[in-house]
Design goal:
By secondary structure, the protein is an alpha/beta fold. The chain is about 25% helix and about 25% strand. Bound molecules: adenosine monophosphate.
């Protein structure tokens, strides 16, 4: 148990044995006519979103899909993403959300690996899907219409065997199809590992999704999920002094992050269950986002650090009314302290918090308490959620437990730990050990149990036998007035091991002098951590979820001189 624990927050929760699609059914019952999703001029209430999802679910069943068959979603964020995602879940299918920008060979691997039988695409990406589908088990392709947030300049010609969504989900109002799907069945298969290696499909069970949504609902909205008399999901307020920032039925969020990634996908179910109106924003621009905050009176912002960097640098932060925002939740990649402080200055009335999670842990593992009476620990990703045990284990071989402030690898146990990788018994056995998830992330806890991350184990570099954690150096680089973004990698060097090497992007109008920047870092770290080379670049390669693709930043090995 952590020494700091929010008063009134249970350490353990009940998790009803239900399928994840029930979360939308519950939201429709709880919030009926409230707006659920806004996509330009198109919008759906909770009842309408559910009705559309049910119609799609019947189309899926009519197409011969049975419990546990795989439906792959290949589309950008739009209201049809939500309709087809929940519709496929309500049909009892296992959903694979794929990145629509992925080239055909990678997509084909996912279709083959999962044995997908039905795919949902978007007119702008249909050609890739049809190419990838050759030789796979996909029998039916459904194409959704373009929308304001997912437009398509030139509609593709009609294809044999490609069914427009309007025809596919033509009838089926009323109740969802009957399925026998329950907690131990697979809700999602989500591919991850793209920043470091070959993507692996993570098997996320329905009970993982229900548990993680229940954990977030308790932690962030001070409500418990319970099962009613006929098994339906209900919400019950927690007793105790909760400084509530997310009020069920009253929150408004702007969804920028891609829904094919767990961070947005599972948060979406939490947000809908809490009656949050989700405004889809389409392609990110800081100016559009700030205008949307003002226009929709957004209360909850969720995103990754790249988004915050761009936001705080925008001149519009001084002209827009941003006073509606009550929570800013950052996750998915390391947020540097300078940006978090700048964000807090732009949104003084909001709680700016960080959370940490990974696909193998469904979505969220730790999160800062959403309470103004909680200790503010800049740079911490918060506490493990209810029912979640986190151990920091030494990386030196014996796996001994580390004490406070001692860096080791994070191991996690809890109801959100998923069922392992699809068709990868060896990789699963390495990462999923006796109920524990070995995260591959390095970090430490403080005396109160707050978690701080130091980087990925695979990204740690060793300079003359000393461990160097890129995260610390990236934070320092980002605190320099001329630096907008920074990433540190090790460049192999026969004499010293790996030299800490920085790739930096300058702020608009700033000129970076590599020597001055190296001296700036040197003044702030012990000598072995000094940056030995600086490369100024126009941008850093990013994954769709906003993570820096460090594998694309490796520098060639040298036998050369130590810097
Ligand atoms: P993914 O499975 O794609 O969601 O990636 C998960 C990885 O993102 C984790 O293992 C961490 O390395 C990283 N990550 C997630 N949240 C944070 C955070 N708040 N700070 C730093 N790294 C994070």
């Amino acid at each position: 148990m952590n020494r700091y624990w929010p008063e009134g927050m249970p350490t353990s929760l009940d998790y009803p044995d239900l399928a994840a699609g029930e979360l939308l059914t519950a939201a429709a019952r709880l919030y009926g006519d409230r707006l659920a999703v806004v996509d330009g001029a198109e919008q759906l209430t909770f009842a309408e979103l559910h009705q559309q999802a049910v119609a799609f679910a019947h189309g899926v069943r009519d197409a011969g899909v049975r419990d546990g068959d795989v439906v792959l979603l290949h589309q950008p964020n739009s209201l049809w993403f939500l309709v087809t995602y929940y519709g496929a879940l309500l049909a009892g299918a296992t959903v694979v959300p794929a990145n629509p920008l992925q080239p055909a060979p990678g997509l084909r691997s996912q279709l083959l690996d999962t044995g997908a039988v039905l795919a949902v695409s978007h007119p702008a990406h249909l050609a890739t899907l049809l190419d990838a589908r050759e030789g796979t088990g996909v029998r039916t392709v459904v194409v959704v219409p373009p929308t304001a947030t997912a437009p398509c300049a030139k509609l593709p010609p009609a294809h044999d065997g490609v069914v427009p969504l309007a025809d596919f989900a033509a009838d089926g109002a009323g109740a969802p199809p009957r399925t026998a799907v329950a907690g131990d069945d697979t809700a999602h298969i989500i591919y991850t590992g793209g920043t470091t290696g070959v993507p692996k499909g993570v098997r996320v069970l329905h009970r993982n999704v229900i548990a993680n949504v229940a954990q977030m609902t308790a932690w962030r909205a001070a409500h418990l999920i319970t099962a009613g008399e006929s098994g339906e999901i209900r919400l019950r307020p927690l007793s105790g002094p909760h400084d509530q920032r997310v009020h069920p039925g009253a929150a408004v969020t702007l969804m920028v992050s891609p829904l094919f990634h767990v961070h947005a996908l599972v948060n979406m179910s939490f947000l809908l269950l809490c009656g949050t109106t989700v405004v889809l924003t389409g392609r990110f621009s800081p100016e559009n986002l700030l205008a949307a905050v003002e226009h929709h009176r957004a209360t909850y912002l969720l995103g990754s650090p790249t988004m915050w960097h761009a936001l705080v640098d925008s001149p519009d932060v001084h002209t827009r009314d941003l006073s509606s925002v009550r929570v800013i939740s950052s996750g998915g990649a390391p947020a540097d302290k300078a940006t978090l402080l700048a964000l807090q200055a732009v949104f003084p009335q909001a709680l700016v918090v960080e959370g940490y999670g990974l696909t193998e842990g469904t979505c969220v593992v730790t999160s800062a308490p959403l309470r103004s009476d909680a200790p503010r620990k800049l740079g911490s990703v918060g506490l493990p959620l209810c029912d979640t045990t986190l151990e920091i284990r030494s990386t030196t071989g014996d796996g001994a437990l580390c004490g406070p402030h001692e860096v080791g690898e994070l191991w996690v146990r809890g109801p959100q730990v998923t069922a392992g990788y699809l068709n990868q018994p060896e990789a699963s056995a390495e990462q999923f050990v006796e109920g524990w998830l070995r995260t591959g992330d390095l970090g430490y806890t403080d005396e109160e149990g707050f978690v701080f991350l130091s980087g990925r184990a695979k990204e740690m570099l060793i300079y003359k036998g000393y461990n160097v954690y890129p995260r610390e150096l990236e934070d320092i680089l980002r605190s320099h007035r001329g630096v907008r973004a920074a990433a540190v990698v090790g460049s192999p060097d026969a004499r010293v091991g790996q030299k800490p090497t920085a790739f930096v992007v300058a702020r608009t109008g700033a000129v970076i002098d590599p020597d001055e920047l190296m001296a700036y870092v040197a003044e702030r770290v012990v000598p072995y951590k000094r940056i030995r080379a600086v490369h100024v670049v126009d941008s850093l390669p990013l994954s769709a979820a906003g993570k820096v693709l460090k594998s694309a930043l490796r520098v060639p090995s040298t036998t050369g001189q130590e810097g």
